């Protein structure tokens, strides 16, 4: 991988968390600054100042129900309080949206700061666009300027003037008032959106209210309800249109520069000054005013007159084409039937194209989600631009440079356009040894693994990608943070750090990972490159410990005792534990590490089947000095006691750790425990399948049968039952023998006449009268034997 002019950015080291130590950082006496917990105080922290005047700038993006704010905290000999900037007082736009100011903070070269509210949103009709905004602050946190490079005027940024016919022929007037209230209810009234003025005319023209005179929808509707008819015997439509276009859209009457201008004419008859219509409409054309015209035919239909000439005149008033800008209704009441259609024609649906294709460009850019100071300006990340593919924006001495959607198509193909790569989630820049600058942007959701782009941007918005870095694990968010470091202070970037905070490490733990890339030189070693990075921070050696455990004999015999422990026969075994320690350092030198280890038998299991020959019965705690690169082994003897629980293997657990107060540390991906299961030997031949053949013989010292039972008479107080159980094949595990007595006999005792090598457990249990099978009664499992 090579960059421009043969300069490369090459992988050098993967740095797991927790393996670096700052030798000069005081961790014993921390300074603590506290803010409102619900404000997410401390989401972003920036250090400022030098000797004698130092402090922290702290972002609190959830302050004020999501408005966000910034705190300035002084750092002195004692814990000091933090002063809130209260930027909502100097930047009123903050109070109108949950923009989360303080999610991003950077210092500027003039001693001030830049803070961003990337989620700042504005309502545009039925949509809410999160374009984001930033503020420049001086060293005292006073507002210098608002920075909103992607802010756009809403498509509903309109000045609309309604021209209403109030002559005597309009009847009933209440229907006109209802129409006026309904159509005003379809308009999006507010700052940055629509404002409405009304003219009423007959023989004269009256400006009922000017643009912006009623700034809220509620005020407009109240004015509409109180509007009375002017009356008049003539309908001077041309005069009203000329006055509306020439005067009502002027700045003196509340008109706004850049707003779309719409004229809506409602009349029920031909004008008495029709010859002046061409000149009046020319005034409208000169001022780029779009005209909607509505013909109310009620007066003609009630008098059974032909409205053809009237309709022709109203179509002449309306802009072309007629099918879009001309309406006619049968009477005044029918005006309310066209409210929805008229509203839909005036306000098209924002943010969409045909065939349900998204058309979002910069409306959802969330500018300032990430920012980076350049030598002569600012690089902004636009994570939400272009349907969340993302993008970047440079504002510098070269001007405002916004790469178009197509600029990154080579890296984000159209077939993946709906995958939301989030380019611009992080931004930075690096300087190559030759002085050339490359911009850096992360896209942590690209193909779910993440991607980082290194590129150049020219003033025309053309992007030249010089290198890409790909994440290696799904969901790791590779590229969510990037940082360029100049370690030697020569102005050239030495390292590029790329974070993957949700990278899954050993044992599926979300440990995170930081990738370090060398900048500006060819890599002399094969990939991957096991370099140690010459940082000025003290680091501890990373050690990986491999462990092996073996046990002799490999299984526990149930019947064969090979030793005596505590005066009883037992099965003796010996565990062999071998340790080997290694390091990834190329020159570790002669070094021993101090390893603590624990060996336990049957951990977390009640009862005791086994014990160590020395020390604690079930837990040994030891230490061992391990030379790096060489194997060291120990032997641990233990024995198994007489037990009837031979189906469950015996567990031997080994755990180990290093002394982390000093010296090396274990590799985070290295295991720290091992469990060895030792089975019991069943002694059932080569197939390890036990096939038993049990033979039962029983007799009593009295004669009798079911047909002719023996009756015990006075003088005979007990009877004897002799039972012989013989196994003629392989071991029978869990064999049970049940003797059922009639209810008039009382159990007295059990006597084992032929004690064998196998242990036999004897016991007596009452059998409920309703029981029909021995399986319903408690059992005592004897060992195999005769």
UniProtKB/TrEMBL annotation:
Q: Does the keyword Cell wall biogenesis/degradation apply?
A: no
Residues in domain VWFA? 159-342
Keyword rRNA-binding in the entry? The reply is no
Which regions does the record annotate with the repeat FG-GAP?
24-82, 464-526
What is the membrane topology noted in the UniProt record heading this document?
Single-pass type I membrane protein
Please give the superkingdom of this protein's source: Eukaryota
User: Keywords, A to Z?
Assistant: Cell adhesion, Disulfide bond, Glycoprotein, Integrin, Membrane, Receptor, Repeat, Signal, Transmembrane, Transmembrane helix
Q: Pfam families given for it? A: Integrin_A_Ig_1, Integrin_A_Ig_2, VWA
Q: Which one GO biological process term can you cite for this protein?
A: cell-matrix adhesion
The cross-references to PANTHER family, in alphabetical order and at most eight, read: INTEGRIN ALPHA, INTEGRIN ALPHA-10
- Give the UniProt family note: Belongs to the integrin alpha chain family.
Q: What is this protein called?
A: Integrin alpha-10
Gene it is expressed from: ITGA10
